[in-house]
Amino acid sequence: MGVLADLLLAQPQARRFGITGPPGAGKSSLIRALATLLRARGEEVAIIAVDPTSPFSGGALLGDRIRMNDMATDPGVFIRSMATRGSLGGLAASTREAIDLLDAFGFPNILVETVGVGQTELEIASTADSVAVVLVPESGDGVQAMKAGLMEIADLFVVNKSDRVGADRMVRAIRQALLLRAGHGGRDLPAHHGVDLKGMSGESDEGSAARRPGAAAAPPSPPPSGWSIPVLKTSAGRGEGIDGMLEQLLEHQRYLEASGELELRRRTRARQRIQEVVERRLARRAREHLAAHPELERWVAEVAAGRSTAYRVAQEVAEAIA
Ligand SMILES: Nc1nc2c(ncn2[C@@H]2O[C@H](COP(=O)(O)OP(=O)(O)O)[C@@H](O)[C@H]2O)c(=O)[nH]1
Ligand SMILES: [Mg+2]
Predict the structure, then answer these.
(1) Least enclosed by CB within 10 Å: which of 18, 139, 204, 251?
(2) For residue 148, what pLDDT is reported?
(3) What domains appear along the chain, each with residue ranges and CATH number?
(4) Which ligand is nearest to the CA of 66?
(5) Is any atom of ligand 1 closer than 6 Å to the C-beta of 24?
(6) Which residues fall within 8 angstroms of residue 317, CB to CB, at 6 or more apart?
(7) Rounded to the nearest whole angstrom, what is the distance from the C-alpha of residue 263 to the centroid of ligand 2?
């Protein structure tokens, strides 16, 4: 605990990139290609994959050129997969913590992969400073992406698998949707409630993307107005367009810094972290207090019998641990 607290005293320096989109869109492949480019520039890279559908282990992914094994044994690359299912509430918090730690360890680049299917994933994606939303030619029209809440968090759109037909049409559809949104001020668009993107992936996925209907959280704020969102084509499979994607991600980081937006985002994160840590600590104290309380069984019996209420008990416990 103390060690962790001290480590986190380091000033945040890392570029935090979020790569999100439907399962099978090629997020992992793109991250691998981006990481390879960054390594070629002599920069270290940390990768966090919050994606149960395509783990980073094993196999030749971009033909024979780049094998996952090369990356796994490169000390300049840190790869960590984070479990997702069954840890909904804690996932966003623990991912944020992992990112903060990697930053404190001195990784200049942190790439976070999430499946863009639900509120939690959107939340995680928006903890990155620059978010690339990855779609494929088969992802349906841009309006679908907009409904899914991806428009709100995208700093950059990437149409991957541009080696397939329909990539240009997809690019136009996204641009159109972006224009539409700009015209409407982005305010009166339908709210997103973990819209299922399975049909947008262009892959037959194994039914793994969990839906999160009804997840209530504040919608991520729209991107700042001084940045116009680029829409790029890539083919991770052929290694095309990756340098352009990296260039735009770096450009967005420069924009954030120059506009003061980076500082704002860091403050928002700091506020969130304070809230989280305080809540976690208080929750633990309440649990411990309650578990050891000599009156607990009596309270339980009284509430169960309708002679008292959970609110009364809570009042007493809250006062005791305050
Ligand atoms: N045709 C084509 N296939 C690709 C491309 N990029 C990735 N893939 C393939 O699409 C599948 C899913 O890729 P992956 O990176 O695991 O997607 P993720 O689920 O978004 O992380 C894999 O079989 C990849 O080899 C591409 O640019 N073109
Ligand atoms: Mg993946």
Answers:
(1) 204
(2) 61
(3) 2-259 (3.40.50.300), 277-321 (no CATH)
(4) 1
(5) yes
(6) 286, 289, 290, 293
(7) 30
**Other beta carbons within 10 Å of 256:** 22
More confident residue, 126 or 177: 177
pLDDT of residue 10: 72
Identify the band that residue 23 occupies on the pLDDT scale cut at 50, 70 and 90. Answer: confident
User: What's the burial of 274, exposed, middle or buried (CB within 10 Å: 0-12/13-18/19+)?
Assistant: exposed
Q: How far apart are CA 269 and CA 61, in angstroms?
A: 34
Checking if the pLDDT of 243 tops 90, the result is yes
Q: Which of 156, 174, 173 is nearest to 241 (CA)?
A: 156
Q: Cβ distance 217 to 193 under 8 Å?
A: no
Q: Which residue has the tokens 């979020």?
A: 18
Whole-number mean pLDDT of the chain? 79
The ligand 1 atom nearest the CA atom of 160: 27
Distance (Å) from CA 11 to ligand 2 centroid:
30
The answer, yes or no, to whether any atom of ligand 1 lies below 6 A from the CB of 160, is: yes
Which ligand approaches the C-alpha of residue 48 most closely? Answer: 2
8 A C-beta contact, residue 29 and residue 62: yes
Do residues 196 and 209 lie in contact, with contact meaning Cβ atoms separated by under 8 Å? yes
